[in-house]
Design a protein that fits this description.
Elements: E1 2-5, H1 18-27, H2 33-53, E2 59-61, H3 69-76, H4 93-101, E3 125-127, E4 134-136, E5 139-140, H5 152-162, E6 167-172, H6 174-180, E7 182-183, H7 193-209, E8 214-218, H8 228-244, E9 249-253, H9 263-267, E10 273-277, H10 284-291, E11 297-303, H11 313-326, E12 331-336, H12 355-360, H13 364-378, H14 402-411, H15 422-433, H16 450-460, H17 466-487, H18 504-507, E13 511-514, E14 521-524, E15 527-529, E16 533-539, H19 546-553, E17 561-565, H20 567-572, E18 575-576, H21 582-603, E19 607-611, H22 626-641, E20 649-654, H23 663-669, E21 673-676, H24 686-691, E22 697-700, H25 713-726, H26 745-765, H27 769-774
Parallel strand pairs: 1-12, 2-6, 5-7, 6-8, 8-9, 9-10, 10-11, 11-12, 16-18, 17-19, 19-20, 20-21, 21-22
Antiparallel strand pairs: 3-4, 13-16, 14-15
Helix pairs in contact: 1-2, 7-8, 11-13, 16-17, 21-22, 22-23, 25-26
This protein binds glutamine (GLN) and zinc ion (ZN).
């Protein structure tokens, strides 16, 4: 067996977030294009040199991007919508950034992404497969022409060669590119394949002419459900590309899941290698190792590129040696499962974590070491027996808490129903709260002003004492409550000023979570996040929100919602331990949140909102896996929410608008009230709630919080009117699409005042007879 090591992609952001700062300096006019491009060039050089130092045989190039690799591909092939005023040739930086962020209309939300408004809007953004990375969705149309504006992979290959580093350039494959694109005219993006392939062919030819020997072409869409027709397109495309550049070796990279029914297609392509995701592959890799033709290099994505744990290298080495014993003729490459884009850069920076915990972690830099060590181990080099082989994690008492295991055991077979059905609950809740029809409320957070952020950071640095900080937050909270009362909202919130982030706030108070200082991961563009790391059994040592709720409720006679983040959202936005099934970790979190729900109820909270903002985004890539996920996700929510009295009203919130395919799960959550994002879809998404006769109460968002625009009264009344065409008036709440933390008070104030007026106007009309009858 020949054994080599490879990487598929390295984080672009820089160990100290150099790229973010360079981008922001450029965008705000504090630096020029040359300065930005210089930082980018230095980062690429550093990354290549690091990978060379770590002993990687195959180092990627063109994995770098100033903003997003899908946008890079779109601009490279000339897929630039008309509004951006591109007239051919190399796409300049300002056009590129206009596509990423919009132009002239100032970036308005905290995300820095311009979703519309004046000027040119940015392209739409969406999640890259099941990661928390977001790409810009290319916009195509039936008459779309493609042209090579700039051979980016070639430029990167040559740039690395200048530095004496031979690389394997990365391209996003044509099938995945089209699969991820949208068309503006309802046409099929795949109809454009015949026009796109010549551009790819030319890229490959030019690479081949420059004596590039291998390219990596990413086709993660092979981990999705594809139609027979799509599989045919994969076949014919790669045949075309092979003919164009027969000398060039293609490593076809698949990742994020097993190939399933796409496997046969993948194995039959005229390429030189196949990369598969071993960590997500459900053991499929063992079959592949048995049947893969020896002409194909088998790249084993065996080091998890989606998580932060050190691998058990001795076990992995044994598995590779077993393949070697069976198939000595195979050429094997050891690689991360996918690009390392999805993990932070260097665990060594986390000096605030204790040595033991840090020794369990493997970020991008450590993963490169693991890959090299693994090769040495398989090669029988004794020197590899070092600290990388010790892993105390699995047996550590810090990881395993018998009390948590015992509680989980007691859940088996329990159905987590509320005490009574919804109709009975609704009756006692109406009695208790005496709310008007169309009650108004908000989703939880109020603007996180510069003052709030300043105080938080001063407190973090010790410049503000605990007491001073608490006093400051209490003042903000009290003001927000007084203002809500003044404008006549019916159900109030405390404003979440004490929360840095809806997941971190809870994670910091739960056992089993660790937080990092420098472990940034790109979410999109210059927006990076530091996900919590769940390393051990989760429990709740003490109440997390009760004293804030008590303070808030003491300010008002109106109902004050208790505000919690749900277990599925906490799970989906964290790095999760890999030694337990995700559903088990989720149930542990659910038990902790359930404890909080019970404590809030004991303290007198009559309404408790459990946000599940990220429930939908946890859906598996393959439809066949959806039901299992939805079952445990819903069960986790019910674990939190079921152990309360009928008169306690459970709310949930979801900030997205696609419910069609998960409606049964939403119904099964059995929240008394659900608030959702609907304002932009003009309430159309309520159709599914209507069709399914969704029985519980619902607050369809009437105020688009993604825009600074203040909706007027009639506009929100129209939306409510549309909602009443679909749902019973008695079911409806009136609220914004989501929390208001990224907005400014001078937008929020008039918008919510208008919202209250819009609700009042509906009340004046009262319920129609039909609404009353069906209620
Ligand atoms: N309660 C949270 C807030 O209002 C919910 C945020 C979200 O759904 N993303 O900010
Ligand atoms: Zn939301």
């Amino acid at each position: 067996m020949t054994l080599t090591t490879a990487n598929l992609g390295f984080p672009r952001i820089g160990k100290h977030r150099e790229l973010k700062f360079a981008l922001e300096a450029y965008w705000t006019g504090k630096s020029d294009q040359a300065a930005l491009l210089d930082v980018a060039r230095q980062l690429r050089a550093k990354n290549w040199q690091l990978q060379a130092r770590k002993g990687l045989d195959i180092i990627p190039s063109n994995d770098f991007s100033l903003y997003d690799h899908v946008l890079d591909t779109a601009t490279m092939v000339g897929a630039i919508p008309a509004g951006y005023h591109w007239h051919g040739g190399k796409v300049d930086l300002d056009t590129y950034f206009a596509m990423a962020r919009g132009a002239t209309g100032q970036a308005h939300s905290a995300c820095g992404h311009n979703h519309g408004g004046e000027g040119v809007a940015a392209l739409e953004m969406t999640k890259w497969f099941d990661t928390n990375y977001h790409y810009l969705v290319p916009e195509l149309h039936a008459a779309q022409q493609f042209v090579l504006t700039e051979n980016r992979p070639l430029a990167a290959f040559l740039e690395a060669r200048e530095l004496g580093i031979h690389t394997r350039p990365v391209l996003l494959g044509p099938i995945t590119f089209l699969k991820l694109s949208k068309t503006t005219d309802g046409s099929d993006a795949f109809d454009l394949l015949g026009r796109l392939l010549p551009v790819y062919a030319r890229i490959l030819q030019e690479l081949s002419d420059a004596s590039c020997d291998w390219v990596q072409i990413d086709e993660p869409c092979l981990a999705l459900d594809l139609s027979d027709g799509e599989r045919e397109l994969v076949k014919s495309s790669y045949a075309t590309l092979f003919q164009a550049a027969p000398e060039l070796n293609v490593m076809l990279a698949t990742y994020f899941g097993p190939l399933g029914e796409n496997l046969k297609t993948a194995l039959g392509l005229p390429v030189s290698g196949l990369h598969i995701d071993v960590t997500r592959g459900k053991e499929e890799w063992k079959t592949i190792a048995e049947i893969i033709p020896a002409r194909l290099t088998l790249s084993l994505g065996i080091i998890d590129g989606r998580n932060v744990w050190r691998a058990d290298l001795a076990d992995l080495a044994r598995a590779i040696s077993d393949i070697n014993a069976e198939r000595p003729e195979l050429h094997i490459q050891i690689a991360p499962s996918c690009s390392l884009l999805h993990v932070p850069i260097d665990a060594e920076l986390e000096t605030d974590l204790d040595d033991e915990l840090r020794s369990w972690l493997s970020f991008a830099t450590q993963k490169l070491e693991e890959i090299s060590t693994l090769r040495d181990l398989v090669d029988g080099k004794v020197g590899a027996i070092d600290r990388l082989l010790e892993n105390t994690r699995h047996h550590s008492p810090r990881v395993n808490d018998p009390a948590v295991a015992k509680r989980l055991g007691e859940l088996v077979g329990v159905t987590h129903n509320r005490k009574s059905g919804f109709a009975e609950r609704q009756a006692v809740q109406e009695q208790r709260f005496q709310l008007p029809l169309f009650p108004t409320t908000t989703i939880g957070s109020f603007p996180q002003t510069p003052e709030v952020r300043k105080a938080r950071s001063a407190h973090g640095k010790g410049a503000l004492s605990d007491n001073q900080y608490r006093t400051f937050l209490e003042k903000e909270t009290a003001n927000a409550i007084r203002w809500q009362e003044d404008i006549g909202l019916d159900v109030l919130v405390h404003g979440e000023f004490e929360r840095n982030d809806m997941v971190q706030y809870f994670g910091e108070q739960l056992s089993g979570f660790a937080f990092t200082k420098h472990a940034w991961v790109q979410s999109y563009g210059s927006r990076y996040v530091r996900p919590p790391i769940i390393y051990g059994d989760v429990s709740r040592p003490q109440s997390m929100t009760v004293s804030w709720w008590q303070f808030a409720q003491a300010q008002t006679d109106k109902p004050m919602k208790g505000m919690l983040t749900g277990p599925v959202t906490i799970l989906n936005w964290s790095f999760v331990r890999d030694d337990l099934p995700r559903e088990t970790v989720c149930r542990q979190i659910a038990l902790a949140i359930r404890d909080e729900v019970i404590d809030l109820e004991k303290a007198g909270a009559g309404m408790i909102q459990i946000d599940e903002a990220a429930l939908r985004e946890g859906l598996p890539l393959r439809k066949a896996d959806w039901q299992y996920y939805l079952d445990w996700a819903v069960e986790s929510f019910r674990i939190c929410a079921s152990d309360v009295a009928d008169e306690t009203q459970i709310h949930t919130h979801m900030c997205y608008s696609e419910f069609n395919d998960i409606m049964d799960a939403i119904t099964a959550m059995d929240a008394d009230v659900i608030s959702i994002e609907t304002s932009r879809s003009k309430m159309e998404l309520l159709d599914v709630f209507k069709d399914q006769a969704y029985p519980n109460e619902i607050g369809p968002g009437v105020y688009d919080i993604h825009s600074p625009r203040v909706p007027d009264i009639s506009e929100m009344q129209n939306l409510l009117h549309l909602a009443r065409q679909r749902l019973n008036g008695r079911q409806l709440w009136v609220n914004p699409d989501c929390g208001l933390k990224t907005r400014k008070w001078d937008e929020v104030k008039p918008a919510l005042m208008n919202m209250v007026e819009a609700a009042k106007a509906q009340r004046n009309g009262d319920l129609t007879t039909k609404e009353r009858k069906t209620a």
